[in-house]
Write a structure and sequence with these properties.
The complex is a heterodimer of chains A (172) and B (419). Chain A is 24% helix and 17% strand. Chain A has helices spanning 24-27, 37-42, 52-55, 76-83, 96-104, 150-159, and strands at residues 11-17, 61-63, 88-91, 109-111, 126-130, 135-138, 143-145. A seven-stranded mixed beta sheet of chain A has the order 4-3-2-1-5-6-7. In chain A, a hairpin with a 4-residue loop joins strand 6 (135-138) and strand 7 (143-145). Chain A has six helices and seven strands. Chain A is an alpha/beta fold and 172 residues long. Chain B is α/β, with parallel strands linked by helices and 419 residues long. Chain B has two domains: 6-260, 2-Layer Sandwich (Aconitase, domain 3); 270-410, Aconitase, domain 3. In chain B, 30% of the residues lie in helices and 19% in strands. Chain B contains twelve helices and 20 strands. Chain B has helices at 6-14, 35-47, 71-86, 99-104, 137-146, 171-182, 204-212, 228-238, 302-312, 330-339, 341-347, 398-407; strands at residues 23-27, 30-34, 58-61, 92-93, 114-117, 131-134, 148-152, 156-162, 191-196, 221-224, 256-261, 268-270, 278-280, 287-288, 291-294, 322-325, 351-352, 373-376, 392-395, 409-410. In chain B, helix 6 (171-182) runs parallel beside helix 7. The longest helix of chain B has 16 residues, at 71-86. In chain B, 58% of the residues are buried. Classes of the chains: A alpha/beta (172), B alpha/beta (419).
């Protein structure tokens, strides 16, 4: 599993770039649904492009367009992303269930503050994401603003996921 | 101060805190758990020593792997069953059908209730005026332990149906038209609040088909304003109406109001590989099909099977087509048996599989190969979902699925012939 970002932590990695409406069946095909972590890990983007998963490096960053993660609630899509040690996901916006699942597992999903900034991000580019500050910095030093996660989401990230807020009673 | 929408009122009625920020903590009335996603949370649930907050409010059903097709699926299903039985869960339904159908057949689903489930199509209970929404395994773990969850108050889009729905059209054609209009993110994070002001009135099965696919438009809730059709459904099921008729205020604040005249609505089809890639069937280039699928939580109900039986009575499925039918639940199957639809469809060459998710999620019995082209009454035609990455799925109504199965192709003139 990836390291939980602390409130000051940043993630530096290369961009894997995707388009609009990347659905969960394409992110993680149902045939790879399993309780075996190795099988889940291998399934990431398998139908879309089987060469992606073996080349992902820890802390790499997924960048998508609109409505990233639409479709199923199967959390194996998040597990696969975390097992491959993706550090963060940036997109124009996220599908609702996917955003919850990622957040609940401490995986930062950050929408671009200005959708036009997507044009500044290219496949393979090395960037640094500061989830809590909601900024992204390119190697050339250019800073791109992300939507602030707000206090509630930041709390879940900082805790390392929703279940860390469960002391055996309703979380506060 | 403007008035409240239906989901505003339901969330308010379930809110724990007075927090007026983006997120609210709420109590839920019921939790739905299918085998596959519940299996994902068991380790974590047990390691943390959690217990279920109220077992009577949890409905568990094995539907993805029912019965299992592989040893791995059997192991996952067995893990789920051992977990449920170990906790003495009172509402464990073994091999009874698709969990979303089982939820609307169960007393836990009530109008005005707030329901969460570990599968995106949990939203379908909105067809009978419950605010229901799908979540992942981690969310459901939290809710199982606490009876609560966190919600962002959704903006609401009101959808008002007018006119007379043509006899050959159905709820599927309506929701595909909404997908054409709104796209896959047009209702992202929103409530779709459905007002049936049509002359013909939408039957309950059509409403379920519409609410089911509201999630394909990105919605959190896809909920019908309760009316006499809603009440009749509950009275037939429970003997009396036990829920709450939550109606939006007359001056409710809507982000948008969409008026849909049903009178002109003919058959709609979603082309591969997006449910929003919708055209009128009459504008489609003819395409030869190899597979017809009538089933899934989107459209495997009695009215859907009846429509197909009416189309195929005394006729034969095209020899190049495999026609797979999966009733949404065993109850639906029994009703279809009693009505004679199973015999009619079997005589026509269709095959019936046990009530389960089946080929909809590419799980078993009807999975597509690279060269397969399928017309399906299910809810998603995402690339690779029903099988091979190169396979193609068109989404359509049960009646269109049946007509295409007869003809061996999806063609613009499928409805030129009277039946």
């Amino acid at each position: 599993m990836t390291e939980t970002p602390t409130r000051t932590g940043t993630v530096t990695g290369r961009i894997w770039l995707f388009g609009d409406d990347m659905n969960t069946d394409v992110i993680h095909p149902p045939a790879f649904f399993s309780l075996d972590p190795e099988k889940v890990k291998r399934g990431l983007f398998h139908g879309y492009d089987p060469t992606i998963q073996p080349n992902i490096q820890p802390n790499d960053i997924i960048v998508g367009g609109r409505n990233f993660g639409c479709g199923s609630s199967r959390e194996t899509s998040i597990r696969a992303i975390k097992l491959n040690k993706i550090g963060a996901i940036i997109a124009i916006d996220f599908a609702r269930i996917f955003f919850r699942n990622a957040t609940n597992n401490g995986l930062p999903c950050l929408p671009l503050a200005d959708p036009a900034d997507l044009a500044k991000l290219t496949a393979g580019q090395r960037i640094t994401v500061d989830p809590f500050a909601a900024t992204l910095t390119t190697e050339a030093g250019e800073t791109v603003a992300l939507e602030s996660p707000g206090e509630f989401i930041s709390q879940i990230w900082a805790a390392g996921g929703l279940l860390q807020m469960l002391p055996g009673s309703p979380a506060e | 101060m403007s008035g409240m929408t239906l989901s505003d009122k339901v969330i308010d009625a379930h809110a724990i805190d007075d927090d007026t920020t983006l997120y609210r903590k709420v109590n839920v009335d019921a939790v739905l758990g299918p085998d596959a996603t519940i299996a994902l949370l068991i380790d974590s649930f047990e390691k943390r020593g959690l217990s279920v907050w109220d077992k009577d409010k949890v409905l568990l059903a094995n539907d993805h792997f029912s019965p299992p097709a592989t040893a791995e699926h059997a192991d996952i299903a067995n893990r789920f069953l051992a977990f449920a039985r170990g906790l003495n869960m009172p509402n464990l339904l073994l091999d009874r059908g698709i969990c979303h159908q089982l939820m609307i057949e169960h007393k836990l689903c009530q109008a005005g209730g707030l329901i969460v489930g570990a599968d995106s199509h949990t939203i379908m209970a909105g067809g009978v005026s419950a605010c229901a929404t799908g979540m992942g395994a981690t969310d459901i773990t939290f809710t199982l332990a606490t009876g609560t969850t966190w919600l962002r108050r959704p903006e609401t889009i009101a959808v008002r149906f007018h006119g007379e729905l043509p006899e050959q059209s159905s709820g599927r054609d309506i929701v595909l038209e909404l997908l054409r209009l709104l796209g896959e993110s047009g209702a992202r994070y929103r409530t779709l609040e459905f007002h049936d002001e049509s002359v013909t009135r939408l039957c309950q099965d059509d409403r379920f088909a519409i609410s089911n696919m509201a999630v394909e438009i990105g919605a959190k809730f896809g909920v019908f304003v309760p009316d006499e059709i809603t009440e009749a459904y509950y009275v037939e099921r429970d003997g009396e109406f036990l829920g709450i008729k939550v109606r939006p205020d007359a001056d409710a604040r809507y982000e948008r109001v969409i008026d849909v005249d049903l009178s002109e609505l003919d058959a709609r089809v979603a082309k591969p590989w997006q449910p929003s890639n919708v055209v009128a069937l009459r504008e489609l280039e003819p395409v030869k099909i190899t597979t017809a699928f009538l089933g899934s939580c989107a459209s495997g109900r009695l009215g859907d099977i009846e429509a197909a039986a009416n189309e195929l009575a005394g006729r034969q499925v095209h020899p190049n087509v495999r026609f797979v039918v999966i009733p949404a639940s065993v109850e639906v199957f029994k009703k279809a048996l009693r009505a004679g639809y199973v015999e009619t469809l079997t005589d026509a060459g269709a095959i019936f599989n046990h009530s389960s998710c089946g080929a909809c999620g590419g799980i078993d019995k009807g999975v597509l190969g690279a060269d397969d082209i399928c017309v399906s009454s299910s809810n998603r035609n995402f690339r690779g979902r029903m099988g091979h990455w190169e396979s193609q799925t068109y989404l359509a109504s049960p009646r269109t699925v049946a007509r295409a199965a007869l003809r061996g192709e999806l063609a613009p003139d499928l409805y030129a012939e009277a039946r």
